[in-house]
Design brief:
There is one protein chain. The protein is of the alpha/beta class. Helices cover 51% and strands 10% of the residues. The strands form four sheets. Strands 7-6-5-11-12 form a five-stranded parallel sheet, sandwiched between helices. It has a four-stranded antiparallel sheet with strand order 1-2-4-3. It is globular and about 85 Å long. The two termini are 36 Å apart.
């Protein structure tokens, strides 16, 4: 509708003026379908917004898209002509093309192969799933990739513990999911290291577990056959468990990149940068990069001797995350020729990515504006922060099982007639919606405390509430004998629909009662665009919740199947179908679906 109004205004105004017009939802407490404000124009023309609104009200008098206009304060509130409006609603697009020329490599998850995926990963996954889907819905080509952290001292700690105390056990022999089995040895290392620390200090000939793990890392770097074989076995155990979790969460990567495949290439890039004068050699032999002023340490006290350079390769020749990330970025540019690299990693790594993007540009591997770090806040438990080495993390699998059981209890109470398999299928969908919606309902930049009971509730701002709104619409459509798959607003003669519109236009029979739903539907495309422009799926979460609440309010006051006339009934059924289409599209972008029953 905005475009139709702008097209009309273009006959009377120049482009510069048109670009300074702003549309917005009607302010709370006011009436109308859409608001216009003219703050920019008022400032430019040195007139009050009301004076500008009066001018536009006169111009729009002959616009057949509008029924009337009304000035309320600084706003010009627009009332759409019903038939034009509802035709727009029924044909409202569910996607956008604003990113049609974008080719994006989108990295998320980034697991370590020494433990299972946990609640922190789940926030990463919720953000990665939703944003990659949203980018595609706005026309971008998206390559979902993963970086697997499969080397380093933390990996050797799990390996050393298993080597010492594993006694040949396997995940199968103890009946445990393979990544959880590996994670147990990481916790075992930490527990044993604390117990042995004092004893080791008493004997100079008895190295600590940390020292032994470091020695194992040196052997791994040297290609020691026994260490490499153990590494291969435990890595595959971890990754197999991760793959099972990914499948349950609906995640599929186009390509995995492993640190172990790129740390040597990273060293080569460090040496290349040194030869090209991009990097320099420090006195101790480390390769470093001189950072620009905006990346140098702040608040340095007078007289402090702080090196403002960043290490790219250690003095002993070992690589760090930065070294490997340079090589991985180079590989991705070759693999996909993207015009944007996106990294979904917690805010703790903000500085790392600033340095990485600076180095990539210095090496002519990628421009800084082509790189984006999509950061997010931490996920806390009600009693504090999670720590993997202490074993007090919430594993993703265990949390999903807990949510599944809570959902199944509710589903069983509400739908005793369902088979066990049907109850399981519905409960799995509710579980999926619960954690994804909850973790996306807060701005990604803010930390969040996860509350399992709140997330699974069928009431309030939750994923299950959103699903339930869709389930109720599906029930109405089944009773109306309406297929839910095609866009029947565009196919009124569908013989299987049970509705006989023939050549009648449903827009003719809808009025003010349905307006709020229609206005909300027309916002959907702009919400998608706002979400990708800000890399924030919370806009979509908020929109879907508002749409579900608008539907609930409408349905509480207006009968669909028992409407006053057959034409109104059929028109409302088609409007309900359009609401469902938007809900289903929106929830699918967030990564979950609406079941048939709840």
């Amino acid at each position: 509708m905005e475009n139709k109004i702008l097209d009309f205004l273009a006959q009377h105004l120049d482009t510069e003026t048109l670009n300074k017009i702003n549309f917005s939802p009607v302010p709370r407490g006011q009436k109308g379908d859409l608001a216009m404000n003219f703050f920019q124009l008022a400032k430019q023309e040195r007139k009050s917004p009301v004076e500008i609104a009066e001018k536009f009200r006169g111009i729009l008098t002959d616009c057949d898209v509008l029924e009337k206009t009304e000035i309320v304060g600084p706003y010009l509130n627009l009332y759409f002509a019903n038939e034009v409006f509802y035709n727009e609603v029924f044909s409202a697009p569910l996607e956008s093309e604003i990113l049609a020329k974008k080719n994006i490599v989108f990295e998320f998850s980034g697991p370590n192969t020494n433990k299972p995926l946990h609640l922190g990963h789940m926030r990463n996954h919720a953000l990665g799933i939703s944003m990659s889907n949203l980018l595609e819905a706005c026309g971008a080509t998206v390559h979902r990739v993963n970086i697997i952290n499969d080397r380093g001292i933390h990996i050797c700690k799990s390996m050393l513990a298993y080597q010492k105390w594993g006694n040949g056990k396997t995940p199968e022999s103890v009946g445990k999911k393979s990544d959880h089995f590996v994670g147990d040895w990481y916790v075992k290392f930490s527990t044993a290291a604390k117990a042995m620390a004092d004893k080791s200090r008493e004997s100079k000939n008895d190295p600590t577990l940390d020292q032994q793990a470091q020695e194992m890392l040196v052997k791994w770097e040297a290609g020691d056959r026994e260490v490499r074989e153990l590494w291969q076995k435990m890595s595959e155990w971890a990754l197999q468990g991760h793959r099972e979790t990914y499948q349950r969460q609906g995640i599929e990567f186009e390509k995995d990149y492993r640190e172990s495949d790129f740390y040597l290439k990273g060293k080569e890039l460090a040496e290349r940068g040194l030869a090209e004068g991009v990097f320099e050699r420090r006195a101790d032999g480390a390769i470093v990069v001189e950072l620009p002023d905006d990346l140098k340490p702040k608040n340095v006290k007078e007289g402090e001797n702080i090196d403002t350079r960043k290490v790219v390769l250690r003095a002993d020749g070992t690589s760090i995350y930065l070294t490997q990330d340079l090589a991985v970025a180079e590989a991705r540019k070759k693999d996909f020729n993207p015009n944007q690299l996106v990294y979904v990693v917690a805010d703790e790594q903000n500085y790392h990515f600033k340095v990485l993007f600076y180095c990539l540009e210095k090496l002519n591997l990628a421009k800084k504006e082509e790189c984006l770090h999509l950061g997010y806040g931490l996920v806390h438990l009600p009693d504090g922060r999670m720590k993997s080495r202490e074993g007090n993390v919430v594993d993703a699998d265990n949390l999903m099982d807990e949510l599944f059981n809570l959902a199944k209890k509710e589903v069983s109470a509400r739908n005793a007639e369902l088979s066990e398999a049907e109850k399981n299928e519905v409960s799995e969908k509710i579980m999926d919606a619960a954690w994804k919606f909850y973790l996306l309902s807060t701005n990604p930049r803010k930390s969040i405390t996860f509350d399992a009971d709140k997330s699974i509730s069928f009431e309030g701002a939750t994923g299950p509430y959103l699903q339930y709104a869709g389930v109720r619409i599906k029930s109405i459509l089944r009773k109306a004998n309406l297929k839910t798959s095609p866009d029947l607003a565009q196919d009124k003669k569908d013989s299987k629909s049970g509705l006989k519109f023939l050549d009648k236009n449903p827009a003719k029979f809808l009025g003010s009662a349905e307006k709020q739903l229609g206005v909300k539907i027309l916002e959907f495309q702009k919400v998608l665009e706002k979400s990708v422009q800000n890399y924030n799926p919370t806009y979509l979460v908020t929109f879907l919740m508002e749409l579900a609440q608008d539907w609930s309010s409408f349905y509480a006051n207006n009968s669909v199947l028992n409407a006053e006339t057959e034409e109104l009934k059929n028109s409302r059924v088609l409007l309900a179908h359009k609401v469902l289409q938007v809900l289903e599209k929106g929830t699918s972008l967030l990564g979950f679906s609406i079941p048939e029953v709840m």
